[in-house]
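// run 5 | inverse folding | seed 20
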C-alpha cells in the first residue's frame, strides 16, 4: 500500500478527531449533506386558499342533508301515529265484535 496519510484515507482515528473538533466548534458535520427545507410555493400567492364554488356546494349539500334528516324524523313520527291509530281502531273493532257476539249469545240462549 502506498504511503498515504491517515487523515486522507479516513478511518476510526480520523473520524473521532473530526467529530470531536466539530463538537468543540459548535458546528455539526453530519448535517452538511442534508437537503434544504422546502419553501412554501404559495407564499406570494394572494388567491384564496379555498374554492368558493366548493364552499357553496358543501353548504347546499349540508342544507339538503339537514332537510332530509328533518323529513325522515317527521315521517317516522307520522308512521308511529298511524300505527297507534290502527292498533286503537282494531282494538275498538275487537271490543265491538265481542260485545255484539256476547249480546247475541245471551239473546239466543237466554243467559
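// decoded
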Amino acid at each position: 500500500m502506498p504511503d498515504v496519510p491517515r487523515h486522507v484515507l479516513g478511518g476510526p482515528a480520523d473520524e473521532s478527531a473530526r467529530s470531536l473538533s466539530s463538537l468543540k466548534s459548535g458546528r455539526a458535520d453530519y448535517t452538511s449533506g442534508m437537503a434544504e427545507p422546502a419553501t412554501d410555493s404559495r407564499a406570494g400567492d394572494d388567491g384564496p386558499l379555498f374554492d368558493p364554488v366548493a364552499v357553496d356546494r358543501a353548504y347546499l349539500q349540508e342544507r339538503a342533508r339537514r332537510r332530509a334528516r328533518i323529513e325522515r324524523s317527521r315521517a317516522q313520527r307520522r308512521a308511529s301515529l298511524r300505527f297507534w291509530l290502527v292498533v286503537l281502531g282494531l282494538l275498538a273493532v275487537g271490543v265491538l265484535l265481542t260485545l255484539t257476539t256476547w249480546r247475541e249469545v245471551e239473546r239466543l240462549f237466554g243467559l
